[in-house]
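Try this one yourself first.
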């Protein structure tokens, strides 16, 4: 199990690049920068984020494409349920409106959106991170 920001445990899975679908194009200059950084570091520092139902990449198009260019066949993925009310999407540019439907349509049809169109956010109360502990009271009074 990996740790997100050294605080939140997350499950990361290695998956084949060919199993994933992109919804955005990537800008070649930035892609080259990301690829070179990965080469320089010798490690991929962060997993990409993918919808578990459609296998559409929500975050990590540049890392995905950099690994593809480097001849890699697998990538670390953090799966989420894109239908969750806690995941929201908005446009990167002022006034740009992007919906989850836009993202899914682009990912499933292959008609990709321009680079850096969508920004995905997790929106929930902090209590949703912690989870249940269900500790009996007698353990708390000893």
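Now uncover the answer:
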């Amino acid at each position: 199990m990996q740790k997100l920001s050294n605080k939140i445990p997350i499950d990361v899975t290695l998956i084949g690049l060919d199993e994933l679908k992109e919804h955005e194009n990537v800008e070649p200059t930035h892609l080259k920068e990301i690829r070179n950084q990965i080469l320089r570091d010798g490690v991929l520092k962060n997993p990409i984020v993918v919808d578990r139902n459609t296998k559409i990449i929500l975050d990590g198009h540049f890392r995905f494409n950099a690994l593809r260019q480097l001849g890699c066949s697998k990538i670390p993925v953090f799966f989420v349920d894109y239908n969750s009310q806690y995941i929201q999407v908005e446009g990167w540019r002022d006034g740009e409106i992007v919906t989850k439907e836009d993202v899914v349509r682009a990912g499933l049809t292959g008609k990709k959106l321009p680079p850096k169109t969508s920004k995905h956010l997790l929106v929930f109360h902090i209590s949703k991170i912690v989870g249940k502990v269900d500790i009996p009271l007698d353990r708390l009074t000893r």
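Discussion: Residues 28-41 form the longest helix (14 residues). The CA atoms of residues 17 and 74 lie 5 Å apart.
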